[in-house]
Amino acid sequence: MTELLILAVCLAASALIITLGLVIMRRMKKKPGAVIKIIYCVFVCLLVFSGGTFVYLSIYYKATDRAVAALSGSDNVKVTSSEDGYLFDGSGKDTLLIFYPGAKVESEAYAPLMNSIAESGVDCFLLTMPFHLAILDINAADRVIESHRYEHIIVSGHSLGGTAASYWASQSSKADAIVLLASFPSSALADSMRLLSVYGSEDGVLVKSQYEGSRQYFPENSRELVIEGGNHAGFGDYGFQSGDKEALISAEKQQQITAEAVSQLASELQSSKSK
Questions:
Q1: Is beta strand 222-227 parallel, antiparallel or unpaired with respect to 85-89?
Q2: Taking the CA atoms of the chain, what radius of gyration do you get in angstroms?
Q3: Range with the lowest mean pLDDT among 8-12, 79-83, 96-100, 205-209?
Q4: Residue 3: band (very low, low, confident or very high) from pLDDT cuts 50, 70, 90
Q5: pTM
Q6: Residues 37, 39, 43, 49: is their CA dihedral positive or negative?
Q7: In this structure, is the dihedral angle defined by the CA atoms of residues 89, 90, 96 and 98, taken in order, positive or negative?
Q8: String of b and e for 27-59 (b: at least 16 CB within 10 Å)?
């Protein structure tokens, strides 16, 4: 949420500077010298804010070597890339999980988690986002669904990526379930949808007061899983995240627990469909 606020402030400030400059220029048409100074000041300010925004967008958490290696898949999982991201094709045939990465985190950092989930029998599509911000392409799941035919769709996301995923899910009827990792919905989800909320006991980034306040948006069929010893960054492989607490378990363990929970959710979807 902090990343989104900073970006919004930078963009709003740039727009405000331009608007003020134009207004002042119109009122000072008879003073060309002053107008030139104003234009110069507006240009400098705009350059500073634009440069700040560019620097902000250029700084992000990068995938570790382990994450990059996971893009090669495994004996049971084949990974293919496309314009929208990566498909982790495992033994599963009827369920696809579409994943929105966390803000300012390189998408590839979630490759180990996707690989673990695919190994458990649920194919995964890891989305890549412009400037590593899921909020800039919230409807990306629509394109994936159109090009990949699965009986069941689970949408998921980590941190701010989970918020983006939940917003898409609140506006669409294409998903059967949603898995939020250290995240929470920003708007009401249909009661026909299943929700699995997962976070670590050592999470130092998730704002618990906001999380608790979001319970009003949870659908009737919701389940919560607290991973003992897990932290915020443990769902991905991008190193320690600012503001987080030290994990008491490995990222591999946290991701394996998550994969098992997703596999159970997928089994529940398949069982309910067969009844």
A1: unpaired
A2: 22
A3: 8-12
A4: very low
A5: 0.83
A6: positive
A7: negative
A8: eeeeeeeebeebeeebeebbeebeeebeeebee
